[in-house]
Amino acid sequence: MSIIEYSAVELGKKIQNREISSVEATKAMLERIARLDDTYHCYITVEEEKALAQAARVQAEIEAGKLTGPLAGVPVAIKDNLCTKGMLTTCASKILYNFVPGYTAEAVLNLEKAGAVILGKTNMDEFAMGSTTETSAFGVTRNPHNKDHVPGGSSGGSAAAVAANECYYALGSDTGGSIRQPSAFCGVTGMKPTYGTVSRYGLVAYGSSLDQIGPIAKNVTDCATILETIASYDPKDSTSVKRDSYDFTSGLVDDVKGLRIGMPRDYYGAGLDGEVKAAIERVAKELEKKGAIIEEFDLGLVEYAIPAYYVIADAEASSNLARFDGVKYGYRCKNYEGLHNMYKKSRSEGFGPEVKRRIMLGSFVLSSGYYDAYYLKALRTKALIKQAFDRAFETYDIILAPAAPTTAPKLGESLSDPLKMYLGDIYTISANLAGIPGLSIPVGRDSKGLPIGMQLLGDCFKEQTLIRAGYAFEQSGVFTPAVAVE
Ligand code: GLN
Q1: pTM of the complete model
Q2: Which of 154, 240, 430, 440 is the catalytic position?
Q3: What was the pLDDT predicted at 480?
Q4: Which of 80, 91, 131 to mutate to test the pocket of ligand 1 (most atoms within 8 A of CB)?
């Protein structure tokens, strides 16, 4: 196996055994980025010198016996909405084109404490608003399995970087599916933890009540290990949860005997691509063979999830993005007359069309006279969706669903019809509204060779159960994801 093909945990072991050094692995990744990233454009920023210096520092600590964890010395890519001290953080927006944060996001800090080497910052939809990584102000990312197709979004750069072996693993953020859907489109494994598990401190806020940071990696073992490293109780994030346990890797057991798995009929009807459906049904059969109990059931309320999500997410976004005004951060327009005109022009020139659409929609649903009719109604719907999941988890340990209704669309097909693009989030956004964890795992390919992903959903704090089922599926050997780029 070549050095670039190892999973994060495999590489970590080789580094601990002194078979490979962190510097060698970092160089291998940087060479690969230099060779491939003009084509795929997974990164907005690559920090060669910093990465090599960090790798040398980490290697010395490993050799001194100070860093013994599974991710020590392993190079990682970070989504560009996570603040990194001294390193450009743009959120793929012109308005933050020159923003260099003075502090590092807690999740990234946790990785650095564990000896991670940061390669750079990955491309994304502008402020994480989108499903294709085409709304980035810095150009599109291409799907490593077929460069005419999108990588998904909004964490498309992170997912594509993992698929193209341009990093060993990456961090993404998931407000409505932005870790799970690009993972599915790129044939990699991604996890959105229970809301509050990973500190949002230093994550540039989109929809604060929905945002969660999580891992994108080559397999379930890596995801569990990364989650164990980034999750922490953090008083700097008022929504951070003090969990009873931060042990996720104990879930890595090949045993689903007696596990009750529900398949919501509402997720398998009209709109779901036949090849995606067939692939998920194959997974269900495999898990059944291994002793799981599979049943269909009605989840309900699915048709209300998208409107509720887009009202709540946009309302929060309109408030969160008010801080970008040409004064405190980033871009300021060249010519203006007075303060008010400066705000207006900086924002008009700095934000892209999708972000503006959402700020306008969000401001509208929060405005007096419409607040009750839209925002409050959406919050009530959110509560009902949570109840529907609570009911489902009285009977089932896990919900088995597709990650997305189709495989990755072609570049340029989605942006012309934003409403259609929003509908593609149908299977992922409910998990954010309910705050529950979700794990996306590659399970097949369609006739065009594009990856198909499944999604496992569990009740709050039940990541271990998802990890167990996902790991058991991987061990079945029914589907082994292929390398996207030789
Ligand atoms: N596609 C969804 C949106 O545009 C989800 C994005 C995300 O999870 N950040 O809002």
Answers
A1: 0.98
A2: 154
A3: 85
A4: 131
